[in-house]
Structures are given as structure tokens and as C-alpha cells.
Amino acid sequence: MKLSIVIPSRNRANSITTAKLLKSAIVVCPESQVEEYRKNVSNEIIAIPDAVKGLGKTRNYILDNLKDDIIVMADDDITYAKYIGGAHEKVITDPEELEFIIRNAAVMATDAGVKCFGFGQTGDVRKYDPSQPFSFAGWVGGVIGVIGKEKSFIDNYFKVDVDFCLQCLLEDRIIFKDNRYNFVQVRDRNSGGNSMFRTKKLVEKEKQILKNKWGKHIKFTATKTGDMCSIDVPRREKYSGVVY
User: Fold this and answer.
1) How much is the pTM?
2) C-beta of residue 72 within 8 angstroms of C-beta of residue 6
């Protein structure tokens, strides 16, 4: 199985935390910042043209230029992972174990025949359902795996992973999500990257683009910590209570 783990980064080089956790991952950074990154990370580095701006364009550039059939893209602000599949949560920082978790998910996703895979969005063991260690709807982000080159990301700055998952659910009817693990990150707090473009006007514009595209299947809810995004794509038949 040919798989690349990639960290697309446009934050300051000294603020990247994921590179310390995923040491075999390739760091993708703007070509004008390569020297700065080399001073701060020991990972392999690939330069991306400065003109490629925004998360959607960056993800598509990576898919177009890396040859492996499976590309896993991890946000650059991950601090650790959690296992919540047991009675107590377990914090994971060991690089070999983290890579094993990602590769194991890739194997299961490949066997399931999906084009997109990832991990649960909650690290709260109280919200974990032991009867659903895996799910095949919803959306993944933070760490997102793409299998094959058939699909591309929307040309937006934000929420492109949500759109990608919805596109897979529309066309393939399925994604793969390992709910046992959650990759914990500091969302939208680092300097540089998308934060340079994050204005209220642009965020609202791109949210409206997704609302217009997906209608009732996507919902944004304002919370104290920021916007929460949820999608509604049922994948189970409702039991009517009637037996034939």
C-alpha cells in the first residue's frame, strides 16, 4: 500500500506541532519559507508555490503532485491523539503508534472501497458509542485521507473537508470514520496560514456557498468556541415497528 502522510502548513515554522508527532510525514510549505522551515523541522519538506493560497487549492496541489494512491493530510496544529474506545481515554503521542493508527485506518478504508477516511471529531469518552466504533457517514477533518485521484476539493479557504465528505457521500454513498480515535488540535489560533485571510466577511461568504450547495444537509451553529459544523446524511433505514 503506497501511502504518503502530508502536513500542509502555512503557519509559522516554529509553531508547527504535528511534525513532532508524525516524524515520517512530509511538510508542505510555501516556497518562500522553505529555509525557515528547515531550521525548525526535521521532516522532509516539499515547497508549494506561494501563489497557491487557501486550503482547497493547497489540498488539490498535493493530490496532483504526489504520486501515491493514498494521501493523508494532517493539520499542522495537532498536539496529540486520544483513544476513547475503552473505559478510560488514552493520550497518544508516540510517533510510531500514531502512524500505525493512520495506516490501519487506511487499510480498513481501502478494504471498504471508500475514497475518504478519517477519525472521530470528539475526544470525549462519554460521547463514544461502543456499538459504533466505525461509521460510514458524517465528516472527517484534522486528519483526512484521500484514496485515488478521482475527486478534488472545493476551491475555498475554509470547511473544504466538510464539502469533500459530502461529495463522497453523494457520489459513493459512504466514507470511513474510525470513531475510536480523535486527533486533538488548536483550531484557528496559529499565526499565518488561513488566519491571514480569515475575515468575518469571507467566512460568512464561504459558509453561504456551502449552504447554497448542500441545503438542508449542512448546518452551522454558533458556539462560544466558534462555529460548529454538522451534516445530515442518513445512511440507515428507520425501523417502523412493522414486521412483514
Assistant:
1) 0.90
2) yes
